[in-house]
Amino acid sequence: MPSGIRWAVCVAASLALAGCAANDLMVKRQTETEAKVEHLIQSDKRAEQRMNELSGQVQSQEDQAKAVSAQLKQLQDTIRELRTAQDELKARITLQAAPKIEVINQEAASKGKDYGPPADYVKAFGLYSANSFPAAIEAFAAFLKNDPKSSYAANAVYWIGECHYSLSVLPKARDAFKKVVDDYPKSAKAPDALLKLGYTLAAMGEKDKATAAYERLIKAYPGSPVAARARERLTAN
Q1: What span is annotated as the signal peptide, if there is one (predicted)?
Q2: CA-CA distance, 87 to 112, in Å (whole number)?
Q3: pLDDT 10s digits, 97-113
Q4: Cα–Cα distance between 121 and 111 in angstroms, integer?
């Protein structure tokens, strides 16, 4: 082979080898780049998965907090109702233990909650217990006039409503129960007043308003025992 041809062949071979090397380097860099992209994608997926896990944990804690809050509210409602029942029991015991003669210039009872209901409240409640509803209404009204800020004010208004309800004076019963609900929403008598407001409205033929009262009771005082009775009324309707 002439020397010129051998030289040309060598040059061509060198160029071919150089081209292959450059191609290999490009493939290597492309592979590395793809590996880095894949790593970033996997990291992003792991971060998204972790974020979803954290979101789930936060939601679970929020649900637990809501459940605890609902249980706490139910306990508070129960405590208020127990205190009311205790006060009414004290009133009944006081009535039973009271002498049958009228006491002149009786010493005023303490207005403190720990000392039980005031004497004039006990007297009014005694009239109600004896089914003397008109006299009980006057007695409770006098009690409210003398001590409008008494801790037993809501109870007195409620029993006025009960008296009117027993006498079938439904508009006045409605107004009394509504006053308890509107003016004393934190009173232990508020759930009872809502239930009796529903009963009264139903007796007056105002079924839609009665339903609204039952629904309001269930929503505002879900843990109250009377809420179950409101649900029964809604189911019956």
Answers
A1: 1-21
A2: 12
A3: 544 433 333 434 444 45
A4: 11
